[in-house]
Write a structure and sequence with these properties.
Helix content: 40-55%
Low-confidence stretches: 182-201
Shape: flat
Structural class: mainly alpha
Number of domains: 2
Length: about 200
């Protein structure tokens, strides 16, 4: 996994999900921080001598170690998928712009962090490659807009999303699924909408 920073055990969301599952279900594991993504996938999971690098397979394997099973609830699945898609579509571009396009953030946060985490000269090549990809992606996002108008558009979208979610919780629910957080939402692994319950030992 990527090393931790900013008060969390790892800066990688997928790694944090695994660490949370393992802690909740008291799974014994050995965590290893690494910082050479050119050589090996981060995160990855090794079990019984087999390396798993696909994010979806990593989560499924981890859940088996926690003795969890998936039961599909169609109503909850459709509702949570709508929430998930709306949230990701609203926030992913703004987060991307903040980390890779806003010059000050890139220089003093993103670039600085990767330069410290990845050894020289790999850090130089990795950051330059990612920044070039980011510039190309942002050019596509801008279209006919100026840089300022493009950034403003995506930040307004994220702000509206927050307002909408605040409105959804006006009925005093603590969670979107009700009073209990029984739905685990794994946006990048497409597992939202599944109700996860412990199996009988």
């Amino acid at each position: 996994m990527w090393e931790g920073d900013f008060g969390v055990a790892s800066v990688d969301p997928d790694s944090l999900l695994l660490l949370t599952l393992f802690k909740m279900y008291r799974v014994n594991y050995i965590g290893q921080h690494t910082s050479l993504p050119q050589w090996y996938a981060i995160p990855s999971l090794q079990i019984n001598g087999v390396d798993i690098t696909d994010s979806y397979e990593i989560l499924l394997t981890a859940m088996k170690q926690c003795k969890l099973e998936l039961e599909l609830d169609v109503v909850v699945q459709s509702q949570i998928n709508v929430y998930k898609n709306y949230f990701v579509e609203s926030f992913a571009p703004a987060l991307f712009i903040d980390c890779w396009i806003q010059e000050a953030n890139f220089e003093y946060l993103t670039k600085s962090w990767y330069y410290q985490a990845i050894p020289f000269p790999f850090n130089y090549f990795y950051v330059n490659k990612k920044r070039k990809q980011a510039d190309e992606r942002f050019e596509e996002m801008m279209g006919q807009h100026t840089k300022f108008k493009c950034i403003l558009k995506y930040f307004k979208r994220a702000g509206r999303c927050l307002e909408d979610f605040a409105g959804m919780l006006d009925d005093e629910r603590l969670f979107f699924s009700g009073q209990y957080p029984y739905v685990i939402g794994c946006t990048r692994l497409q597992l939202l909408g599944y109700i996860i319950k412990p199996t009988v030992a």
